[in-house]
Amino acid sequence: MDDLNTLLEERVADLPVGAPPIDAMRAAVRRRRSRMTVLGAAAAVVVVTAGVVALDAFDSTPDPKPPVASDPPVATDAPPAGYRYVGIGNAVIAVPEDWGTNDTECGTPMSDTVVIDQGVICMALIPRPASVESVEIAASRIMPPGAETWSTFELDGQPALRSPVKQSRASVFIPGLRALFTAESSSADADATVERLLDGITILQGHTTVPGYALLERDAYLAQLQELGLAAEVVVEDRKVGKGFVLATDPAVGSVVSPGDTITVTVSG
């Protein structure tokens, strides 16, 4: 053991001893720190990038989507092309646009026409011309004669009655709306024409019609307009009839109007 210690001491004594290599040590430290800085920056970039990816993956904000085209609103109160609606209250029937209104002689249609609110008519019997179609519209508080035998059906949610075609004539009665429609034809295919005309009856959803005024005084008629949500503008004309009776309306009786519309009412002065 003594020989070993002596040998070690001799070897240590042979080693050169000088000042510690401070500059070399500092350079090594700087190189080590530089490598750590680069690695740390690279790791930070990876972490930040991963964070962006993670945020994108879990971002709850919905992506903007193009608007989805929806079906256009259905104009349930619009008549078929080439037709117009005419009726009582919100019960109407589609008739060709070129039909007249009250084109009659003593109550008999002389051409294709709508018959509504005629008032007083003569009692002469006038034969109906050939190939004439007509629709008569009337307010009725009571069941038409023989209606208890008519077929029942539902018209736009309203209970209704329909008569069979007899002598080229048939009717539809809507008790809840007190509306009676009668179609008649003298054409070659009269029965089919009558059925087709009555198939054009419908119930309006957001509109009403100008009420009739036959034999009504001003105040009574204005009250009817008010009940329907319609406004009135009164025009007085000198006529050789009783004072205060309604003479005309604009739009005409049976025309489709919207609540809030103004009806021009001409009365005798």
TrEMBL record:
Top-level taxon of origin: Bacteria
Keywords per UniProt: Membrane, Transmembrane, Transmembrane helix
Xref: Gene3D superfamilies: 3.30.10.20
All residue ranges annotated as the PASTA domain in the record: 206-269
InterPro entries xrefs: PASTA_dom (IPR005543)
CDD domains, per database record: PASTA_pknB
Protein name according to UniProt: PASTA domain-containing protein
Gene source species: Nocardioides caricicola
